[in-house]
Write a structure and sequence with these properties.
Layout: H1 3-10, H2 14-27, H3 29-32, H4 46-58, E1 60-65, H5 71-78, E2 84-91, E3 97-103, H6 106-114, E4 132-134, H7 164-172, H8 177-188, H9 192-209, E5 217-221, E6 235-240, H10 267-282, E7 286-292, E8 299-304, E9 309-315, H11 318-333, H12 337-350, H13 364-375, H14 388-393, E10 402-403, E11 407-408, H15 430-442, E12 449-450, E13 459-460, H16 485-506, H17 516-520, H18 523-532, H19 543-547, H20 552-556, H21 559-567, H22 571-596, H23 603-610
Parallel strand pairs: 1-4, 6-9
Antiparallel strand pairs: 1-3, 2-3, 5-6, 7-8, 8-9, 10-11, 12-13
Helix pairs in contact: 4-9, 7-8, 8-12, 10-23, 12-13, 15-16, 18-22, 21-22
Bound molecules: cytidine-5'-triphosphate (CTP) and magnesium ion (MG).
Magnesium ion is lined by residues 222-223, 234, 236.
Length: 618
C-alpha cells in the first residue's frame, strides 16, 4: 500500500481522497490517471495542466456536423489521414452539432488540415486556416468507411447545462445538505469538454494573430481554468507576446526591422483595436465584438458562436493568469473548497448579489476569495486551507514570477511541497461549512475589517470603502472597490437570511425547499414557483393547466380560485404569492426594457462574415 494511502487511512480521509481525485478526472484525464507508485505526487501543478491542455489543443480540431450520428462517418473519414485519440460531441447556443477530435500527434492533425479545402461557392469569403471546420456531405461515388466496433463518442452533448427542474428534483432526493452541495458541484462544474473548447478558442486566436505578431501566446485564465468555473462560464483570455531569450540573443546578427507604435501612453490599446478588427474579419465563429478600450484593463469582448462561449480578451495581464494559478492551487488542497465555493457562487446569483455585468455589486472572483478566506479560519477546529503567506514563504527559485508593472507573483507552485498539517485539518462536512460560512460573514465586522487571504485573518481596513478584499498579488488593491454601500448592506442581510434559512431547515421535517434548494431558487421566480407547487410536494402545477379551460365550470372559475384548487393553498397564500410574483415581474420587465437598448457595435459585419451559406453538411 502506498505511503499516501496509508497516511490518508490513518487520518480518516479516505473518502476525501476519492472525492479529491474526482474533479481532476473530469478536468484532465491523462494527468490524473496515476499509479500508486507515483502517488507521492498528489498535486499536479497549474503549469503542468496548462502545458498539457495547450498540447491537447494543438492536436485537436473542431468539426461542425449534422448530428451526433455523423460520428461514424467522421471517424472513418479522418482516420484515413490520422490516428484518433477520441471524439467529443457538443452543441452550441443555436443547437448546432460539433465534434471535437483529438488526434494522437500534432503531425497527424496537420495531415488532416492538409486534406481540408475552402468553400468554393462564395467569392466574397476569403479562405481562412483555422482549427474550426465543417463536414461536407459526400458527393460522387460512395467510399467504404470503417469504424472499429469499440469506438464511440467520448461524450455526447458534453456541454449541456442541467435543467433547473431536473437539478431541483435530484437535490430533493439527497439525504443531507452536504450531499446536495456535492451533487450541485458534480452536475455543474466546468467539465473536460468545456476546458478543451476553451483551449481550442485560445489556439484558434494564436493561429490567426501569429501571422501578424511574432511569438503571440493566448492563455485562458479566470474561472475557465482556476477550478471554480461552472459549465457555460465566460472565457477570459490574455494575449502576450513576450520575447524568448532565443529571440533576444545578442549573438545573432540579422535583426528584424520593427515598427514602433506612435500612440503614446498605451500602445497596446491600438493593437487591441486591430485584434477586434481581426476577430470580426478573420476569426471564424467570433461575433458581436465590443471594444472596451478605455478601462483600467482594456478588453475586447465577443461571442464565439461555434464554441458556444462568451469571451473577454485582454493584453499582457499575466497577473490574472498567476491569480488563477493561486486559486487553483488553494482549491486543490482540500476536496471541500471547490464544491463550497460553487454553492456560494450559485446562492449569490440566486439572491441577485452578483450580476452578469459589472456594476456596483460583488462579482464571483471576490466572492471566491471570501470563501477561501473563511476556509482559512479553522472552521471545525482546524484549518481547511493555509494562508497565502504560507505559500509565499515556501517559494523557491523556480517559483519566481514577475508580471507586468513589476507585480511580484512569486509563491509556491508545487503543493506537494506543502506540509500536510497546513491544510485539511478540519473534519467538518460541507453542510456544516456552508452554514458556518454564512454565520461567519453574518458576524464579520465589514465596517472596520478587511479580508486578506494572505494573512488568513481579518486586518484593519486602510480606507472607508464598504467592502475591502485585499488583492493577494497586488496587496495595495481592493478587488471589491466597485461595491457600493447598498450592495454591501444587501450582502450582509442575505448572509444572515441564508444562515437563518439553512439552520431552520435542519430541524423538523424536510420541506419542499429544504437545505440548498431554497438557497438556490432565484428570488424572482421563487414566488411563482412557491405558488405553483402542489401542497407540500415539489411537483409544480403546469401553467397550461391554469390557462387551459377544459370544462364549462372551469371557465367560470377565476385565476386565483383555480390556482388555489390545483395547489391546495389557502386564500392568503395565493394572495401573497400573486403579489410577490407581480413585483418581480415588474422589476424584470423594467430590466428587459433597459436591456433592449443595448446595441452591439459591428455585430452585423461579424455575423455576415461568419454566417456563410453552406451546402449540405453531414
Ligand atoms: N482578476 C484579478 N483581479 C481582479 C479581478 C479579476 O486578478 N480585480 C482575475 C482573476 O484571476 C479572475 C479573472 O481575473 O479569476 C477573471 O475575472 P472574472 O471573469 O471577473 O472572474 P472569474 O473568476 O472568471 O469568474 P466568472 O465565472 O464570474 O467569470
Ligand atoms: Mg470570468
Amino acid at each position: 500500500m502506498s505511503l499516501l494511502f496509508k497516511n490518508l487511512l490513518k487520518r480518516g480521509k479516505i473518502n476525501y481522497f476519492r472525492t479529491f481525485l474526482r474533479p481532476s478526472i473530469t478536468h484532465c484525464k491523462c494527468l490524473s490517471v496515476r499509479k500508486f507508485s507515483d502517488s507521492r505526487k498528489k498535486f499536479v501543478s497549474f503549469d503542468e495542466i496548462q502545458a498539457q491542455r495547450r498540447d491537447e489543443a494543438r492536436r485537436s480540431l473542431v468539426v461542425q456536423v449534422n448530428s451526433e450520428s455523423s460520428f461514424s462517418e467522421l471517424y472513418g473519414y479522418c482516420s484515413q489521414y490520422a490516428s484518433i485519440n477520441g471524439i467529443h460531441h457538443y452543441k452550441n447556443f443555436a443547437e448546432e452539432h460539433f465534434m471535437l477530435i483529438e488526434f494522437s500527434s500534432e503531425d497527424c492533425m496537420k495531415d488532416v488540415l492538409r486534406s481540408c479545402c475552402s468553400h468554393q461557392k462564395e467569392h466574397e469569403v476569403m479562405a481562412l486556416p483555422s482549427p474550426f471546420l465543417w463536414f461536407r456531405a459526400r458527393s460522387g461515388k460512395k467510399m467504404k468507411l470503417t469504424v472499429p466496433s469499440d469506438k464511440s463518442l467520448v461524450v455526447k452533448n458534453g456541454n449541456e447545462v442541467i435543467n433547473e427542474d431536473k437539478l431541483r428534483a435530484e437535490l430533493m432526493t439527497c439525504s443531507s445538505v452536504s450531499e446536495q452541495i456535492q451533487l450541485l458541484y458534480d452536475r455543474t462544474v466546468l467539465n473536460d469538454i468545456g476546458v478543451r473548447l476553451r483551449y481550442m478558442v485560445a489556439r484558434q486566436l494564436e493561429v490567426v494573430f501569429n501571422s501578424l505578431y511574432s511569438n503571440i501566446v493566448v492563455l485562458p485564465f479566470g474561472s475557465s481554468v482556476n477550478g471554480f468555473g461552472r459549465i457555460g462560464c465566460d472565457l477570459d483570455l490574455v494575449l502576450t507576446n513576450e520575447l524568448t531569450e532565443e529571440m533576444l540573443d545578442p549573438g545573432k546578427r540579422l535583426v528584424y526591422q520593427e515598427k514602433k507604435c506612435s500612440s503614446g501612453v498605451r500602445p497596446w490599446q491600438r493593437h487591441l483595436e486591430l485584434v477586434a478588427e481581426l476577430l470580426e474579419l478573420r476569426v471564424a465563429g467570433a461575433a458581436r465584438v465590443q471594444r472596451i478600450l478605455h478601462a483600467r484593463v482594456p478588453i475586447v469582448k465577443c461571442a464565439h458562436e461555434l464554441a458556444g462561449l462568451d469571451c473577454d480578451l485582454c493584453y499582457g495581464n499575466l497577473s490574472g493568469v498567476h491569480m488563477s494559478c493561486l486559486l487553483r492551487a488553494l482549491g486543490a488542497l482540500d476536496a471541500r473548497a471547490r464544491p463550497l465555493a460553487l454553492a456560494v457562487r450559485r446562492w449569490a446569483a440566486a439572491a441577485r448579489l452578483t450580476a452578469p455585468t459589472p456594476g456596483r455589486c460583488v462579482t464571483n472572483f471576490p466572492l471566491t476569495l471570501m470563501v477561501l478566506f473563511f476556509l482559512q479560519q479553522r472552521p471545525g477546529g482546524g484549518a481547511v486551507l493555509p494562508p497565502v503567506s504560507a505559500l509565499i514563504s515556501r517559494a523557491g527559485k523556480e517559483d519566481i514570477r514577475i508580471a507586468e508593472d513589476n507585480v511580484n507573483c512569486t509563491f509556491l507552485r508545487d503543493m506537494n511541497k506543502l506540509p500536510p498539517e497546513c491544510y485539511g485539518q478540519s473534519q467538518a462536512d460541507l453542510g456544516t461549512l456552508l452554514l458556518q460560512f454564512f454565520e461567519f460573514y453574518a458576524q464579520f465586522d465589514f465596517s472596520e475589517k478587511a479580508i486578506s487571504v494572505i494573512e488568513g485573518k481579518p486586518i484593519r481596513k486602510p480606507n472607508s470603502l464598504p467592502l475591502y478584499i485585499v488583492n493577494p498579488l497586488e496587496t495595495a488593491l481592493n478587488v471589491s472597490r466597485n461595491v457600493s454601500y447598498e450592495e454591501c448592506e444587501r450582502l450582509k442581510t442575505e448572509v444572515r437570511n441564508a444562515a437563518w434559512q439553512l439552520e431552520a431547515g435542519l430541524e423538523g421535517e424536510k420541506s419542499d425547499d429544504w437545505g440548498l434548494i431554497g438557497l438556490l431558487e432565484n428570488k424572482a421566480s421563487r414566488g411563482l414557483k412557491r405558488l405553483l407547487r402542489v401542497g407540500n410536494s415539489h411537483r409544480l402545477v403546469s401553467v397550461k393547466d391554469l390557462f387551459n379551460d377544459n370544462g364549462e365550470s372551469d371557465q367560470e372559475e377565476g385565476f386565483k380560485s383555480k390556482l388555489q384548487r390545483l395547489t391546495k393553498k389557502t386564500d392568503s397564500d395565493v394572495e401573497n404569492g400573486v403579489n410577490e410574483m407581480k413585483a418581480s415581474l415588474e422589476k424584470d420587465s423594467s430590466k428587459i426594457n433597459k436591456n433592449k437598448k443595448v446595441n452591439f457595435k459591428n455585430s452585423q459585419v461579424a455575423s455576415e462574415v461568419f454566417r456563410i451559406r453552406r451546402n449540405k453538411m453531414i
